[in-house]
Automatic annotation (TrEMBL):
It catalyses: IMP + L-aspartate + GTP = N(6)-(1,2-dicarboxyethyl)-AMP + GDP + phosphate + 2 H(+). IMP binds at D13, E14, G15, K16, N38, A39, G40, H41, T128, R142, Q223, T238, R302. The keyword GTP-binding applies. CDD domains: AdSS (cd03108). The active site is at D13 (proton acceptor), H41 (proton donor), K139. One of its GO terms (biological process) is 'de novo' AMP biosynthetic process. This is Adenylosuccinate synthetase. Mg(2+) binds at D13, G40. Keywords: Cytoplasm, GTP-binding, Ligase, Magnesium, Metal-binding, Nucleotide-binding, Purine biosynthesis. It comes from the Bacteria. The lineage of its organism: Bacteria, Bacillati, Actinomycetota, Actinomycetes, Jiangellales.
Amino acid sequence: MPAIVLVGAQWGDEGKGKATDLIGGQVDYVVKFNGGNNAGHTVVIDGETYALHLLPSGILTPSVTPVIGNGVVIDLGVLFEELDGLEARGVDTSKLVVSANAHLIPSYNRTLDKVTERFLGKRRIGTTGRGIGPTYADKMSRVGLRVQDLFDEKILRQKVEGALEQKNQLLVKVYNRRAADVDEVADELLAYADRLRPMVTDTALLLDQALTDGKVVIMEAGQATLLDVDHGTYPFVTSSNATAGGASTGSGIPPTRIDGVIAVLKAYTTRVGEGPFPTELFGDDGDRLRKAGGEFGTTTGRPRRCGWLDTVIGRYSTRINGTTDLVVTKLDVLTGYDPVPVCVAYDIDGVRHDEMPMTQTEFHHAVPIFEYFEGWDDDITGARTLDDLPPAARRYLEAVEDMCKAPVSAVGVGPGREQIVAIRDLVR
Ligand code: GDP
Ligand code: IMO
Ligand code: MG
């Protein structure tokens, strides 16, 4: 039975939360495999808005077991705040399981994330300031703290002490900040140990058994293809693998057991933070799209940078992720635009590029080559089948399919759970 990966095709905020929620009823497990509370996934159910950061979006579906995989970095304070917030709204969160191998975000990494950005000045990444980058760096440097360390106090204190030997030099001597205290850091983390303990398990083993038993597992990405640390617009990326390959390492589900990859693609493009963005719109044009799409960050509230659909990126995403299904979201936001520009290739220093260029220097020079599609004026928020859409909207989707080289299986026409044009079953 299927193990399906769900990723973002662009720079995040494509509507992954809504897409996961959409198939929630057909799914047994939803695994978050990368990132942490840098993510912000909004799900709207019966007019109620839920903003999820650290928890997998599947937590809103009662039949789903939500899983925080080994590839995730966990801020324990945020985890319990989010769980309490959902419980207070009547959501049952008791099924959540957490990998013993997931890493913890200690307070000093939140501090380091923020001060590093400040020191970078104009060269800053525009991170969410949640300590994500420093915590993944610690993981790779083998000075990270893991969930399982909470259950061996002596080891935890030793590891915090080891990490702080380096970190305090950095905090005090380079960044002119107060040194972190070993006991203070360890005690803050240990305070959550008893409450976390019953949720912690060997999630890779659990998921292996689930798949063997014929259960349906979705691996839900935080962030997106162009924010992937290997395949994205480095260094303006997050610090984890947000593409389909990351689903295997971040969950323990091997590539040979993965049956499909759903890529969520916004009908236009947005980006939060710094970095290149070829189809970006500025001034009034950017404001109009931002307003139409309500493009303000779920996590930091920052206005998102907005621009037209870029199918060079769409094709790249299909290639890197091995996309089997596209979910196109926010088509309703393009209503009223005529014509609708779509970037089909780049002009880079006088040379046409149909594929993503090899270097970031070239990508920074990319000037979009647009094709112009006929727009539509009709309100499409009530459409539920392709036939309900005006011919121009259908032609737009055909062009997306053609240029991004993957079939469109569902189309979002509004934020609500029911506001979807279903074309093909996503869980097959
Ligand atoms: P994620 O991070 O990929 O889960 O996406 P976000 O939740 O950060 O941003 C997507 C936003 O678009 C949210 O506010 C959703 O409620 C909203 N949304 C999702 N799909 C649609 C859609 O088809 N139409 C409209 N108008 N809004 C949508
Ligand atoms: P979802 O899951 C959009 C961006 C940040 C910054 C860069 C690095 O909601 O799509 P980080 O704090 O991760 O070190 O910041 O990545 N970023 C996102 N942008 N959506 C997200 O998540 C993001 N998570 C991180 O703005 O540019
Ligand atoms: Mg988001």
